[in-house]
Amino acid sequence: MNAPQSATAPPAGPGNPIQAMLEAPLSLRERKKLKTRQTIRREAYRLIAEQGYENTTVDQIAAAAEVSPSTFFRYFATKEDLVLTDEYDPAMIDAVLSRPAGEPFLRSCREALIGLLRQLLEHEREELLVRLRLTKDVPALRARMIDTGNEPQRLYLTALTRRAGVREPTYAMRITAAAIGAATTETVLQWAEGGGTEDIAELVHRTFAILEDGFSGS
Amino acid sequence: MNAPQSATAPPAGPGNPIQAMLEAPLSLRERKKLKTRQTIRREAYRLIAEQGYENTTVDQIAAAAEVSPSTFFRYFATKEDLVLTDEYDPAMIDAVLSRPAGEPFLRSCREALIGLLRQLLEHEREELLVRLRLTKDVPALRARMIDTGNEPQRLYLTALTRRAGVREPTYAMRITAAAIGAATTETVLQWAEGGGTEDIAELVHRTFAILEDGFSGS
DNA sequence: CCATCTTTTGAGAGTTACTGTCATTTGACA
DNA sequence: TGTCAAATGACAGTAACTCTCAAAAGATGG
């Protein structure tokens, strides 16, 4: 193989999945890789903040991070991945699956989401805000987001399927995951648009209340 | 101005909006433009069917349609737009808005959707199937779809906002539009995946039933 | 510490989607 | 028929990727 794996997160326990990911003993090589990845991302965000997303070229980012453009693409398959990739997807699935068995799916999602967001906010509130705002403002990113593995829809579908203990999701599962996923995305984007000043847990509650009562308010 | 407008659909009445678009007296220039547009799309679909989306270059398409690459980009802003652009968005908004005033929004959407799909199926069933299947299979397309103006989410949001007679959509409207829009997209994609053999009206009914009862089945 | 093996990196060349400009052509219209 | 605006094509450029190959650097066994 010729490329460093794109950060396959170690399967984290349900206790504090994010924290767990920050530990783990690392070889020198691994540490260097991680550092390179962080440097690239940091420099990229700096440049993007100064010049905007479209005006910042990969070559500039590579130069600022002191790596070759080739190396940039070894760490991020596309420029968009800079903003969109996320290491916490497995944690979200775990969080949903570790909810009590009989609980309605909607509630499991809500609680898992609130728990995960609380942790994310503690550790990297600012970065999350920047990323979400970019996601909302840059068309290419908003577009791409849907397809990447980190979109909520796919997470929910995986969780639903596993919870039911089946291999292939049913039609109803697909529809459910699509709807809840989109609502989740919209919720965090709205939070970011408000500058992160609102209580995100409260927003999540409002969202799920709408879903739960079948949109009867409209 | 230097470029032909990308098919701004004439505002169609609620009667039979699609049919209305197919009539209208056209000047020679307009007819030629329309023909060029159709030729490009037809040749593109042919090449894509033979070689796949990624392996088909814009230059090839332009050559096959006997226009210059410049002209290609005057008709389709991006290669993706070949597959994704859709002339019927205004018709969908109209269809929702022309439902009875007191009707629950969910039902208005359902009926509007079924009505529009029925017409689409009559006129261009095959093309619709091809497009949907491409949309589902080609990552770049699936990604891009969300951002373009033709995605259901934006349509529903517009309809909701206008129906309420306000300027800015509320938080609840955004969440509602996101959820219903995603469910709609998933529904038609599922239909296409089944090769169009299932009754799409029935699928739509199942989808909206799930939404209506608050996902209590999960 | 050294030799060797594997992973990571950089250099460079090539492809493709797209942008902008400008001169030429072609339909519209009086 | 002459004039104007819209449509087209040729061409040059940019930037995001892809591929290949050789050099550098960490891992590993002696």
From TrEMBL, chains A, B:
Alphabetically ordered keywords of this record = DNA-binding, Transcription, Transcription regulation
User: InterPro entries from the entry?
Assistant: Homeodomain-like_sf, HTH-type_TetR-like_transc_reg, HTH_TetR, MftR_C
The DNA-binding region ranges are 57-76
**Which PANTHER family does UniProt cross-reference here?**
HTH-TYPE TRANSCRIPTIONAL REGULATOR BETI, HTH-TYPE TRANSCRIPTIONAL REGULATOR RUTR
Which residue ranges does the record assign to the HTH tetR-type domain?
A: 34-94
* Gene3D superfamilies reported in the protein's UniProt record: Homeodomain-like, Tetracycline Repressor, domain 2
What is the native source organism of this protein? Kitasatospora purpeofusca
Q: Can you say what this protein is called?
A: TetR family transcriptional regulator
Q: Does the keyword rRNA-binding apply?
A: no
